[in-house]
Every structure is written in C-alpha cells, then in structure tokens.
Amino acid sequence: MITFHLEDKSPLGQDKIAAIAKAISDTVAVKKELIIGISFVDSKTMQKLNAKYANTDAATDVLSFDYSDDKNSSSDGDIVVCLDIAKQQAKDNKISQDAELSLLIAHGTLHILGFDHQNSAQVTSLDALQSDIMNKLNYEYRDFKWSH
What we know:
Blueprint: E1 2-6, H1 14-28, E2 34-41, H2 43-54, E3 62-66, E4 77-82, H3 83-92, H4 97-112, H5 120-136
Helix pairs in contact: 1-4, 1-5, 3-4, 4-5
C-alpha cells in the first residue's frame, strides 16, 4: 500500500491522489506500507533541484528521491513535479492536466520502487507498468518520449 503525503497545495484532489496510489499498488503488488511525499514546483525551482541532484542545469518534468536506505527518514521517498512542464506536456500531447500529473506521479513512484529506463528492456517494462496504471485510472497512456 502506498500513501502519498502532499507537501503543499495540490492541483489534484485527495481522491485522485488516493486513486493513483491504489492503481500503482495494484499494478506493482507493493508488499509493504510506503509513505511518499509529493511536491509541485515551478520551472525555476525544478531547474535548481535538477542541477543540484541530477547535474543537469535545466528543468525537468519529474524528479524522484528514494530514501529506503535512510533509516532516519520518516518517508520512503519524495516526488517533485514541475507544474509548468506538466501543463505544457498535457497541451502538447492533447491530454488533460490531471492525466499528465497522474502519469508523472506514477513515473516518479516507479523509480522509488526501483524501476528505471536506462536500456530498452527497462523502457519496455516501465512503459507496460505505466500503461497499466493509466488504464486503471481511466486515462489513455501517452508516448513518454523516453530520454535515458
């Protein structure tokens, strides 16, 4: 079971956040209780975070931080979503903002659960999981336009 803790104001309602958690838990068969924080930030903040933690001086759509090895952490991880980029990606892909935000939260959560996209086999696996999650949320899965 996954519990999302909203760090601040969310563009998604609590019911949608809970539905995303359930769809991920049902798809991946999460075996223990996980607490994951979610924050929504602007492009400038995301660029700073991406530069600091991923050595890339540009904004990105989502970052995830896995704290599972940190015995002193009160949560299992954090997800940071860039609202500016999410809005643009929703527009570019002709999907709702809720669908895009759901996909980015799912993507970040899957990273915290250990899934990655560094090679074609991992991309195929992650695509299948994300597609299943989005279908459970009654959204069509969009092309993720992978970059490794």
